[in-house]
Amino acid sequence: MDYYGPMVLLHSFRIAALTTVVAVTVHSAWAQKTGSETIDVIGKPQVASGSALDAELFYEIFLGELSTRTGDPGAGYAFMLEAARRSADGQLYQRAADIALQSRSGEHALAAAKAWKEALPESREANRYVLQILIALNRIGETSDLLRQELAQAPPRTKASTLSALPQMYGRASEKVLAAKVVESALVDELAHPATGPVAWVSLGRLRLAAGDRAGALHAAQQAQALDDANEGAARLALDLMEENTPEAEALVAKSLAKQPVPELRMSYARVLLGLQRYSDARRQMEYVTKEKPDALEAWLVLATLQVQDNQLPQAEIALGRYMDLLSSATDAQVRQRGLTQAYLLHAQISEKKQDFTAAEAWLNRIDNADEVFGAQTRRASLLARQGKVAQARALLRDLPGTSSDDKRTKLAAEVQLLRNLQLFKEAYEVQTELVTLAPDDAELVYDQAMLAEKAGQPDTMEQLLRQIIAQNPQYHHAYNALGYSLADRGVRLEEAKQLILKALEFAPSDPFITDSLGWVEFRLGNKSEARRHLEAAYKARPDVEIAAHLGEVLWSLGDKDAAMKIWREGLRTSPGNETLKETLARLGVNL
Fold first, then answer.
1. What are the counts of helices (DSSP H) followed by strands (DSSP E) for the chain?
2. Is the C-alpha dihedral spanning 344, 350, 353, 357 positive or negative?
3. Separation between Cα atoms, residue 368 and residue 383, nearest integer Å
4. Which among 10, 13, 441, 519 is placed 20 to 30 Å from 573, CA to CA?
5. Contact 303/290 with Cβ under 8 angstroms?
6. Chunked in runs of 10, what are the mean pLDDT values of the chain (592 residues)?
7. Which residue(s) pair with 38 in the sheet?
């Protein structure tokens, strides 16, 4: 029998079918452009009289598509580019560039796009292709004129969105500083125009921020707000700057909210304040949100959580009641179930703070969401511990379901936190050590182990663990800072402590907690003026209670007791139970 005859016939049939598909595809696309088409009985396009699609051009397009579809994109690209050059047609140039891009050949795509732009210099699409391909190839320095043309050709109604897209467009550029400079040079006209200035300055500010130029980003945000004091983009850029330790940006947020109190912006502001550990300020913003937008579901839950943290329990119960009322009308059953679980957990925490453990348990019993078993049991463990049943609390956490490595880590981490809250630091250190054995190369876990070793009265072990981290992860700046601060706080090896802290600052020069450590070691070295300068800068960037304790002590030692007491009172308002501040006040005999 002839086994090959049927196979050859089948292969020929497939090629014929593909040829017909490609031919129809090619001619249909061209017909949309020229408006002329005739098709014979077998579906093969015929060139209409007077059509620009002559036989030779059609054949090149046909071969280009056929080659691409049959696995030879290089030949397909060559045929399509030649057809584009012969016809000066933008669609064919675009197709050639697309074939190269699909084959991950950026340089060939760029060649096609440049040929397109040379043939049709006023084509916005050709200009955009060259611009985007150059950015993808990281040839940022060649894009300024192209970007300027793109902005000039953008319709007025879409100009703002085009400008807003610039940070994302240049986001993958490896040379961030160059990208910001190139964009700035292309935006000269837009920056000065009242209509486009605000969005142009915000986009430039975001590019500067990505390049690490916080001062330049702040200036851009200020310029945007000067042109439009209600510009939300400037305020959101300012929020990002606040997260990057640029406290001067907060004035822009406040000004924007005073001009136009947008609840969503205020919510974002509150989240940033939470990240900065400014809980009282965050709570005040949430109070504003719930007044401005009483049906803001999430706002009521966040407000209740912050009020619980501030021990404002009656107010928290009112906010939580409002949250549950709004939640009852939620149409999504999963949203409603998750929300109720969060509410029940928070109610249990309120009852626990009131020492009403029976009520707390009753709230936990309402949770029937299998996905929230861990949260409920963790809260139950806290209830048991508060009643002196620490062994039972620990057993409850250990017996939680889950046997995977991640499950074990989660359960041990919860036990560490429980013991830490109870100030059982020796036991917490032992459990943390057990946790580290599951992931010995995890610098974060070893760092927490070192901190607990210090709390457990084992400074030598702490130093050994921190030096282990430094040896394995030389860029882990927290280890340098923690070791330097510990030495300074104990008043030993102060010069070494200062060098460790300065090393940490090399990696994170704007970190207020490291600046606080530097101020503290200067104080221990007797350099009080220098200590005050560093600590005031740290407190301005992050008004944290422990920085307040240190700054207050330096001011007190300099004889500025009124300023010291003012700073300490601010610290007490944000964290009344902080041990460092309480110890400082007790040691100095200060009663606020």
1. 34, 2
2. negative
3. 19
4. 519
5. yes
6. 38 41 47 42 35 71 87 90 90 93 93 95 94 95 95 93 95 94 95 94 97 96 94 95 91 93 93 87 93 93 91 94 93 89 93 92 86 84 92 92 87 95 96 96 96 96 97 95 96 96 93 95 96 95 92 96 95 86 94 86
7. 46
By three-state DSSP, how is residue 232 classified? helix
Q: How far is CA 271 from CA 278, 286, 432, 569, 589, in A?
A: 10, 10, 30, 24, 37
359, 351 in Cβ contact below 8 A?
Answer: yes
CA dist 318 and 284 (Å) reads 16
Counting other chains too, the contacts that 163-171 makes at CB distance below 8 Å and 24 or more residues apart are: 163/187, 163/190, 163/196, 163/199, 163/200, 163/203, 164/199, 164/202, 164/203, 164/233, 166/203, 166/204, 166/207, 167/203, 167/206, 167/207, 167/210, 169/132, 169/135, 170/135, 170/140, 170/207, 171/210
Q: What's the Cα-to-Cα distance from 16 to each of 12, 21, 79, 145, 194, rounded to whole Å?
A: 6, 9, 20, 47, 61
Place of tokens 């300099």: 558
